[in-house]
Amino acid sequence: VKVTLVLFALAGSLLAADEQREEKRSRVRLGGIVVNAGYGHHSGSPYGWSHWYPYSYWHPYHWGHGPFVGWSHFYHPGYWSGFSRMYGMGEVKIISEAKEAAVLIDGAFAGLAKDLKTVWLEPGAYNIEIRPKDAEGYSKRVYVLSGKTLKLDVKALAEDRP
Amino acid sequence: MKLWALGFAAIGLAFAVEQGVKPLASAEEYSVRAERERASVGATMLKPAQVRGSFATDLEDYIVVEVAVFPKTGSELELSASDFTLRVAAKETIRTANPKAIAANLQRRAGDSRGRSGSDVTIYPTVGVGHGRWPGGSGTHTSVGVGVGIGGGPDGPPAPASTDADRNTMEAELTDKSLPQGLTANPVAGYLYFPAPKKRTGAIYELEYSGLSEKITLQLK
User: Fold this and answer.
1) By Cβ atoms counted within 10 A, which residue in A28, A31, A80, A100 is the most buried?
2) Which tens digit of pLDDT belongs to each residue from A31-52?
3) Distance (Å, rounded) from C-alpha B6 to C-alpha A146?
C-alpha cells in the first residue's frame, strides 16, 4: 500500500504541481486496466477529470475530502526498471517511425517508442502492441529467448497478413 | 462448484492463443496445391532465411513447411500432424517432429555448446613469496613460486536459449504456430516441422498427406 501511495504521489506531482493528494485506495487489475477507488483528500484544482497522455490516466478530483474512482493502464513492471539488461534475459529491438507511439506489453503500458528502442525481457511469450497516437495500432506475439535478439519492425507489422 | 469451473473455462478460452497462422485467401496462393473432393491443400516450404525471420527458435536443422487446408463447404476434416510425411528424393520418409521434442533437443544442444566452449573453466595464475626460519638454521630463506589454479562454476551467464524457461518458450512458439489439429470445417494453416536430412542441398522434397481418402503428394519447391 505504501508503494502504491508513493507511485500515486509521484504521478500526482507530475500531473499538476499545485495539487496535493493524500488518499487511501485499493487496486484491481482487469486485463490491462487498473481500477482505482477509495477515499481521499485533494487540494488544488476544483472538480474535473485529469487526462495524462499517453498514460490515459483519468481521475475525477474535487476539492476537500471525498470518495473517488478512476482508472489507468496497468504499468508494466519494466516501466519502472527501464527494461534494463539482466542475467538470462533476451533483447527486443523496437523499430518504430512513430516515436510518440505507446508500447504495451501484455496489455500493460511499457513506455513510448522513442524511449524503448531496446527492451530486455525474461524468456517467455509476450503480446507487444504498438499504438501510434493518431493511427491504427499493431500487435504481435513475440517469443523471447535468453541471450537472443529479436527485431520488431512496426513497418513490417503493418505489411503483415491482415 | 460447476459454475466456477465453467467460469474458469470461459476465462481460459477468452485468453487462449489461437493455434496456427492465418490462412491465405485460397490454396492457389501457396507454392504448391492439390484439390480433392472434400478439401484443397496448399503448402509452401520456407527458405532458411524465412525460417530465421519467422521464428525466435533456431530451426536450422529442421525443414519447415507451411500447410493450409481448405475444407469444402459442408465437409469436416480431422487434421493430424501424423498424417503428413516428407519424402526426400523419393527414398527417405521423414515424420513430423513435435514441438516438445524439438524444444528439449534444442535446449540440450545449447547447454552442450557452452560446455564445449570451455567457458566454465578458468585458469588463475598465482605468485607467492615465502619467508621462513627453520630449526637449526642460522639464516633466513626466501623463495618465490608460481602456481596455476583451475576452477569452475556457474559464474557466467547461461548459453543462449539453454534455460528451462527458454525450452518452455520454444515449445510455446512451435506449438502456437503449428498446424491446428482436430476436427475442422474452416480453413486452417500452420507450420509442420521435419528433421532435416543429412544432405539437404539439391534434395527434392515431397509432402504427403494421407488424411483424405485419396493420398495427396505435393512436390515442394
Assistant:
1) A100
2) 455 566 666 655 555 555 554 4
3) 37
- Residue in B with minimal Cα distance to A86: B157
Q: Which residue has the cell 503480446?
A: A127
- B78 neighbors B182 (Cβ within 8 angstroms): yes
**What's the rounded Cα separation, in Å, for the pair B90 and B217?**
11
**Cα-only R_g, chain A:** 18
Report d(CA B185, CA B73) in Å as an integer: 8
Task: Give the residue on A whose Cα is nearest the Cα of B22.
Answer: A161
Kindly determine whether residue A141 and residue B176, on different chains, have CB atoms separated by under 8 Å: yes
Whether residue B56 and residue A141 make contact (CB cut-off 8 A), yes or no, is: no
ipTM of the complex: 0.73
Q: Please state, in angstroms and rounded to a whole number, the distance separating the CA atoms of residues B42 and B187.
A: 11
The residue count of chain A comes to 162
Please tell me the distance in Å from B11's CA to the nearest CA on chain A: 11
As a three-state string, the secondary structure of chain B is: CHHHHHHHHHHHHHHCCCCCECCCCCHHHCCEEEECCCEEEEEEECCHHHHHHHCCCCCCCEEEEEEEEEECCCCCEEECHHHEEEEECCCEEEECCCHHHHHHHHHHHHHHHHHHHCCCEEEEEEEEEEEECCCCCCCCEEEEEEEEEEEECCCCCCCCCCCHHHHHHHHHHHHHHECCCEEECCCEEEEEEEECCCCCCCCCEEEEECCCCCCEEEECC
| pTM over the 0.80 mark | no
**Angle subtended by helix axes B99-117 and B164-177, to nearest 10:** 140
CA distance B163 to B75: 44
Across the interface, do B161 and A87 touch by the CB < 8 Å criterion?
A: no
Q: Which residue in chain A is spatially nearest to B167 when comparing CA positions?
A: A145
